[in-house]
Specification:
Strand order of the largest sheet: 1-4-2-3
Low-confidence stretches: 151-158
Strand content: 15-25%
Mean pLDDT: 76
CATH superfamily of the largest domain: Aminohydrolase, N-terminal nucleophile (Ntn) domain
Order of helices and strands: EHHEEHEEEHHH
Number of strands: 6
Structural class: alpha+beta
């Protein structure tokens, strides 16, 4: 299973949680003490809010511990609100588009684990994704649901896409109970 941090508080350097301490997210990605997977090496990502309304985003498919850019970014980036994620793939491809967190407009999103039964519903949901989000059709369930939910977030005026989005979310609710 993946490991992640969601931080909201006083502005701080990301290194304080992601790379620096002995129990940092990076340290846990190499040797998890409480997990079914002892290594989280299938990609990672950072998402943070700074001076712009939309979040910054850095994602990579290699293990977090082997990316020197991550250490430099975490030392210099400061934020009052950030996500950090190390991935242990659960059957989906190891690609950048599948690395968390996901960003859509001003929103960040991440989840932990596999959404069971996704394969049986994926095509129906993908058919309902508005053309505004073509990259979501190449992604896993988390990215697709993030794009769907963001269509309803008030970022855009209600359109025909809104009813397609509501249909996709209704399908997910009926199939998975959420």
């Amino acid at each position: 299973m993946c490991r992640w941090i969601a931080y909201r508080g006083e502005t701080t350097a990301l290194e304080r949680y992601v790379t620096e301490p002995a129990h940092s997210l990076i340290a846990q990605s190499i040797q998890a003490l409480e997990s079914t997977a002892s290594i989280n090496g299938d990609g990672f990502g950072l998402g943070w809010y700074g001076q712009h309304p939309e979040p910054g985003l850095y994602r990579e498919i290699r293990p977090a511990w082997s990316d020197e850019n991550l250490h430099h970014l975490c030392r210099h980036l400061q934020s009052h609100l950030f996500f950090a994620h190390v991935r242990a793939a659960t059957g989906t491809a190891i690609t950048r588009v599948n690395c968390h967190p996901f960003a859509c407009g001003k929103w960040l999103f991440m989840h932990n684990g596999l959404i069971g039964g996704w394969g049986s519903l994926r095509r129906q949901v993908e058919a309902l994704i508005p053309d505004l989000h073509p990259s979501a059709k190449r992604a896993n369930c988390g990215k697709i649901l993030n794009c769907e939910a963001n269509c309803l977030s008030g970022r855009r005026k209600a359109t025909a896409n809104e009813s397609r989005t509501r249909s996709a979310l209704t399908l997910c609710h009926e199939q998975f109970g959420w």
